[in-house]
TrEMBL record:
Lineage: Bacteria, Bacillati, Actinomycetota, Actinomycetes, Micrococcales
Bilayer topology annotation: Multi-pass membrane protein
Function in brief: Membrane-anchoring subunit of succinate dehydrogenase (SDH).
Residues spanning the membrane: 28-51, 71-89, 110-134
Pathway linked to the protein: Carbohydrate metabolism; tricarboxylic acid cycle
Family annotation (InterPro entries): SQR/QFR_C/D, Succ_DH_anchor, SuccDH_FuR_B_TM-su
Keywords per UniProt: Electron transport, Heme, Iron, Membrane, Metal-binding, Transmembrane, Transmembrane helix, Transport, Tricarboxylic acid cycle
Residue ranges of the region described as Disordered: 1-21
Cofactor(s) named in the record: heme
Designated name of the protein: Succinate dehydrogenase hydrophobic membrane anchor subunit
Localization per Swiss-Prot or TrEMBL: Membrane
Gene assigned in the entry: sdhD
């Protein structure tokens, strides 16, 4: 008779020099963060959708001027920034968990997590820059290149 190992049982850690046998509380904090950030993301996303689609004229009214007007308010800048950061951290942590579960080799795990971390960093930095440096009416630009709501000068 052959015994098959329980597929849900945790794998024993690989022993070796310099290897820790436990990850400490990092995984617990990650688990708690996923639940809390998921609830916050629901509030942020449905608030975003409500304001953009229900209170206005619907999706046809969302254009450059709508975004420019919305981002003129620090409240909406912070709202969108929180949504960006929480979504990226939440998604990156989820992908990190999947990599830990399915990547067998340490080198593969390191490469994949490094690529995910780099992608996270690029998106968060660029997104944050766009939110806080967005200027629909830059000075010194020809009037024919500016949106219709900008005054030349």
């Amino acid at each position: 008779m052959t015994l098959i190992a329980d597929p849900k049982a945790p794998r024993p850690p690989k022993a070796g020099p310099g290897r820790r046998t436990t990850r400490g509380n990092v995984e617990l904090y990650g688990w708690v963060f996923m639940r809390v950030s998921g609830v916050l993301l629901l509030v942020l996303i449905f608030g975003h959708l409500f304001v953009n689609l229900v209170t206005g004229e619907g999706v046809k009214a969302i254009d450059f001027a709508f975004v420019a007007g919305k981002w003129a308010s620090p409240f909406w800048q912070v709202w969108d920034l929180l949504m960006l950061w929480l979504a990226m951290i939440h998604g990156t942590n989820g992908v990190r968990t999947i990599i830990n579960d399915y990547a067998e080799k340490d080198t593969t795990r390191l490469v994949l997590k490094s690529l995910v971390g780099l992608a996270f960093l690029v998106v968060v930095v660029l997104g944050t820059l766009v939110i806080f440096t967005f200027n629909p009416c830059p000075h010194g630009v020809a009037a024919d290149l500016l949106p219709s709501f900008c005054t030349a000068g």
